[in-house]
Amino acid sequence: MTTLLGCIADDFTGATDLAGLLARSGVKVSLRIGVPAEPPKDTAAFEVIALKSRTAPVDAAVAECRAALAWLQAAGAKRFFWKYCSTFDSTAQGNIGPVAEALMRDIDTAQTIYCPAFPENGRSIFMGNLFVGQQPLNESPMKDHPLTPMRDSNLMRLLSPQVTQPVGLVDRLTVARGAGAIKAALAQLADQNIAHVVVDAVADADLVQIASACRDMPLMTGGSAVAMPLPDLYVQDGLLSREAAQAQVHKVDPGAVILSGSCSAMTRSQVAQYCRTAPGFRLDPLALAQEGAGPALAWLAAQTLETTPILYATAEPDEVRRAQHALGTARAGDIVEDALAQIALAALERGRRRFVVAGGETSGAVTKALGVDRLDIGAEIAPGVPWTYCQSGGHSIALALKSGNFGAVDFFAEALACLEAT
Ligand SMILES: Nc1ncnc2c1ncn2[C@@H]1O[C@H](COP(=O)(O)OP(=O)(O)O)[C@@H](O)[C@H]1O
Ligand SMILES: O=C(O)[C@@H](O)C(=O)COP(=O)(O)O
């Protein structure tokens, strides 16, 4: 069917997060890995294109997102959603702002909103400041992220250097007055030529009002949660019928592996918890730089298919800094991503069909290595982390791509149990 909402996500965990939240309403959501080479065919009402552009050079990220936009326009979409991290992961150069401005130019629209709030996962925005739980972003563990350390909590200050046009705010006091007040505030800001508007939200009810106010905007931007109300609003508006829904039921053989390249605080606890009861192999970037992934691959080969081993580069911030100092930040990340990608392929060759991957960049590397081009969305393990199903090397496989900070401490065991139960 004609695509109603065309979504572009800057990383793969973000894409499954968004697809999972849209799918909660029961509508069909299609998730493509990278910009499809073929013109649109068999498209869904909600199309999500997953890119690995979060930490790419600005020009490359902009070019890739514009290509994704062109594909979604060819699929018939007139409304678009630019999905980035609920912790606004970006550098002073981008890529959130430059991509938004390029998309606005191509779509020919003068204003967009920025709302990374995700209350279910503890991300809220008040007076333009982003909080992670009770901590301002810059005091949260995101201050130590290996690739995009977040050292400011103010979204207007973070966004301004990334864009050429003025940045404004619709604050919580306005949002609390509902969709009409939000619309009026946006119109007033548009009269002042404010192109980029951060919108406060501290609870799901705020997001419903924001989505309601902005549902006809050609471009919305944010985390997944502000897009979640859109399917129901489109149904209310008569744009979509519930019949579009289709349950995704897939059978996937057993044999699982857990791969973690996330160094986020939550992933560190999850890895430590899982290692208490399961075989684990720690990947050290310095050792990988010298001897490659050989020892990890040999270790994996010695594990029986009945156990679910974990291979992880997950490390404390001081260890990450040591590796980055010795190897350079980008190279340290690439070495780890490359090793985990090789390990994923070896696991597939050895009969493992269920993959739990922690980390957005890591998920991008693993998914690319597995040659996956389209994912179906399955059961949600934790808010923002669904199981997904796809084909790799002629096999049906299941992939759970976990954002660094998502999931509870038992996430890995829960993910495996969730798949058994479906
Ligand atoms: N021990 C380590 N030292 C340096 N970099 C690491 C280490 N472990 C993982 N990395 C890199 O850190 C980055 C983590 O990013 P990502 O996978 O997106 O996780 P998250 O979802 O937590 O942001 C990846 O590029 C990964 O390769
Ligand atoms: O919005 C979010 O927090 C996630 O969907 C997301 O983008 C996570 O990125 P990583 O933490 O890098 O996995």
TrEMBL record:
Domain Four-carbon acid sugar kinase nucleotide binding: 257-412
Function: Catalyzes the ATP-dependent phosphorylation of 3-oxo-tetronate to 3-oxo-tetronate 4-phosphate.
SUPFAM superfamilies reported for this sequence: YgbK-like (SSF142764)
Enzyme class label: transferase
Lineage: Bacteria, Pseudomonadati, Pseudomonadota, Alphaproteobacteria, Rhodobacterales
Name under which the protein is recorded: 3-oxo-tetronate kinase
Keyword set includes Transferase: yes
EC number(s) stated in the UniProt entry for this protein: 2.7.1.217
